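Let us practice reading a record.
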Amino acid sequence: AETPALGWRNKARRKFTAEERRAIVEECFAPGASVSAVGLRHGINNAQLFKWRRQHLAAMAPEPKPALLPVTIEAPPAMTAELVPESSGDRQVGSIEIELSGARIRLHGAVDPKAITAIVAALKSR
């Protein structure tokens, strides 16, 4: 029995390694090179060779840069402190009012400076 002639429909498909593809594609980028001539020399269809070229160029393209968004830096909310002296008999009594980040604290009487520092630090950290 005769074996049927091998045509394009029943011909075994050629497999190219990644290195072979890269070498063939790089031939196409040589000065004066023709994709058709390179394809004929290696027995590769032009459409297949152009596809490999696109894939090679896409792989070689640099990563896209992330989009930059506009940023506005605002000053922190103003802190106001006011000492209002009040007199109570023979000794002076004070009142402190602190307004920070929309919060208002009023301290009356003798207040320890360390306590005021701790309160202001706590409000700033919010």
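A brief commentary: The first strand starts at residue 80 and ends at 88.
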